[in-house]
Amino acid sequence: MRFILGLLKFLIVLLVLLIGVAFLLPAKVHVERSIVIDRPTSEVFAVVNSFKLFNSWSPWAEKDPNAKYTFEGPRSGVGAKISWVGNDQVGSGNQTITESDSKQADKRVSSAIDFGEMGKVSADFFLSSAPKGSQVRWTMDMNLPMSFDQKFVSNLIGRYMGLFMDKLVGPDYERGLGKLKVLLEGFPNVDIAGMDGEPVELAAHKILFVSAHSSNDVAATSATLAAAYTQIRSYALANRILLMDAPLSITTSSDASGWQFDAAIPVDRIDGAADDQVKSGTTYAGKAVQFWSVGAYDKLTDSIARAYAWLAVNGYQPADRLIEQYIDDPASMPVEQVRTQIQIPVK
To answer: Which partner for 270 in 14, 127, 280, 301 could form a disulfide, CB atoms 3.0-4.6 Å apart?
Structure first.
């Protein structure tokens, strides 16, 4: 009997001691890892500001390839949300972007993560320029409250678990940052700051077009386009066909040897007489992302390269030929105001 009483006293003292120590343990947990990625902060920001490519670099996706994911809210930025249900290793929960700041030199993306009964944490990405690309810091913060209520036992355990959180989560963060580095360094190394792609649904339009080829010289390209548009206008006039919109170019191929394309103009009908040079058809119809290039045409090559880089880091895949529409005539306005619309069909 004395032994039992002694054991009970010992257990009570031990419990009181554990509870007392728990109140003295840190009430917050902070985990942090960092890496340098050889890409501009604008590209890194685009990837971590969205969940569309999350499973391409997430350290937890590989732990349960059969986990179910759902996406809600906008494609990127504040309100973008991912939810998951998986095995014991990944559990279930959701993550929502709560803050997204790309305007400062040092960029930040903050998220709230809800693990249900397991608790809530906040996760942040801090991005800054580095001599070789971007310095990326990934942090996790968690509050560990202590109160005498129905969650007292779980809170007590949580305080002690907090002592090991860095060792539990840190390796996952390191692995995730490593995968993020590999993913991003596989994309074009292009600064996409200021690029603003707009998802659109394109309708098919009737066109007259002339297939042509030009060198990559801007003057030569302009001359080739001008000659093709003159052919189209002459054909349209002869066949009483109305021109309906600004001229287009639709890229067939482009490389160091030159540019293969269709010079086209939207029209009201395509039932004119057969012609060896001027053909008729319709433009692409379907999903696309639209960009704007403002200024001289010699900026277009750079604008198009940045547009394709923007697509890559935002999780889009090109699906068809690039379309350029020359909205303004540089002969009738200052060249720095000339607008060109860039439309890239996507899957």
So the answer is: 280
Which residues, listed in sequence order, are joined to residue 95 by a DSSP beta bridge?
82, 113
Q: How far apart are CA 192 and CA 176, in angstroms?
A: 23
CATH 3.20.80.10 in the chain: give the residue spans. 198-345
- In the chain, CATH 3.30.530.20 covers 25-184
Structure token pair of residue 258 = 């030159």
User: How far, in Å, CA of 284 to CA of 197, rounded?
Assistant: 18
Give every CB contact of residue 240 below 8 A, 6+ residues apart in sequence. Answer: none
Q: What is the distance between the alpha carbons of residues 55 and 179, in angstroms, rounded to a whole number?
A: 10
Q: Which CATH code, of 2.60.40.10, 3.20.80.10, 3.60.140.10, 3.40.47.10, is assigned to 198-345?
A: 3.20.80.10
d(CA 247, CA 208): 10
70-107 confidence digits (pLDDT tens): 999 999 999 999 999 999 888 899 999 999 988 787 89
Q: Which amino acid is residue 43, in one-letter code?
A: E
Digit-coded pLDDT (tens) for 127-154: 999 998 999 999 989 865 555 445 654 5
Is CATH 3.30.530.20 what the domain over 25-184 is classified as, yes or no? Answer: yes
